Amino acid sequence: MTRYPSDRLHEEVAYVAFHFHWQRDDILRLEHRERQRWVAEIARINQRITEQTGGRR
């Protein structure tokens, strides 16, 4: 079994917690693949907002 780098895990948890205001323990309970899907979805939302506003938020 390969360990997931702890720095990357902390980045993902912080990213999801910041954007969705979820609790740390709830995020950590997500399966790795599901957590990555949420990270990707947040990135898509942010990209769409950036494109729609011309970079202004």
Name the helix and strand elements from N-terminus to C-terminus, one letter apiece. Answer: HHH
> Unreliable runs, pLDDT <50, ≥5 residues?
none
**Structural class label:** mainly alpha
The fraction of residues assigned to DSSP E strands is under 5%
Which sheet architecture does the biggest sheet show?
none
Counting copies of identical and different chains, the oligomeric state is single chain
What is the typical, i.e. mean, pLDDT? 92
Measure the end-to-end span. 41 Å
User: What's the helix count?
Assistant: 3
Bulk shape: elongated
Q: How many domain regions?
A: 1
Q: Please bin the fraction of helical residues.
A: over 70%
E-strand count: 0
Architecture overview:
With 57 residues, the chain is mostly helical. It has one domain. 75% of the residues lie in helices and 0% in strands. The protein contains 3 helices and no strands. The chain has helices at 6-20, 24-29, 32-53. α1 (6-20) packs across α3 (32-53). The protein is elongated and about 45 Å long. The N and C termini lie far apart (41 Å).
Characterize this entry briefly.
This protein is an all-alpha fold and 57 residues long.
